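hey can u check if this looks right to u? its 342 residues, i copy pasted from the old doc so theres a chance i mangled smth
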Amino acid sequence: MLQALGLGPVEEAVYTALLARPTASAQDLVRQTGLDAAEATRVLLDLTARGMVAVAEEAGDAKPDAAGDGTGARPARYRLTPPSVALAPFLVEQRSALHRAETAFSMLTEQYRSTAAHPAGSVVEVVVGAEQVAHRFHQLQRGAQRELLAFLVGEPIAVPRDDADVSESFALERGVDFRVVAAKSYLDGPDVAREVRSAIRAGLKLRLVDSLPLKLLVSDRERAMVPLDMADSGGEPSAIVVHGSGLLAALVHLFEKEWAQARHVYADTTGVHAEPVADQQPTEGELEVLALLLAGISDRRVASQLSVSIRTVERRTRRLMDLAGADSRLQLGWHAARAGWL
């Protein structure tokens, strides 16, 4: 927990041990942490020098002995400096370091883009070999700041499913919007349903189709990765990484088209289920609501005109947005026009 603030595992063990007691000697901490006396003493002196621990003076004439080595002197006892005082400078430094890293990242990204009167060859990067393909895959997933889009088809080849799940969890924990379209056969793999159920509960948005033309991963709509036929690379796993270009825009468009037509997938205690195909089209009542909303009529007036409750209007609108995969009513209108709902 405290390694992010610059403490190593040993220092963190001593620090957290001190949290549980008002004061402690080196020997107390030896018993509590399992460290040897020399190591506990070294850590205490180091934390004291860094202002995170202070010597707790005790009454008595004997001179405190830092190590408490039984020489007759009273062992020194230590207490924590209040964390709000001692750890604040470390937190500020870590924030400053992160800010500097983000600034450097932005400068490098902008510098790269400024040179992108890209020759055609720099739009597509060819990656050959299982290790290299896996490395670039994790780079794309872990580097995403806003959004990940993926097609899942067949069995993993270059990236084991467990490794992909770790990168997926890392992205979801950071709040990345992660949308996946999976071929129906993908859910047939061993333990896939259990893993998918956990991912959906963690925030993954999943839809299902009968088949997909290719595997795909898109990171922040800036880069995409598509596997190549292994026969084209001497039997080794290979892939292309596509940078910003018309080709990348086409891949994103392909994803959005499949997403709009795919069936929603939900998880419950019995497993992972896809909504029936019939449920993917708006009902007549939902289309009535949609037509009035797109005419600029408020929810309350829509409810009055259709002689339904305001909650019914909101429920129908919510389902329409779910069907369209829309986050706003503007997006809902765009999808409705494109899908021919009205």
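The first helix runs from residue 9 to 19.
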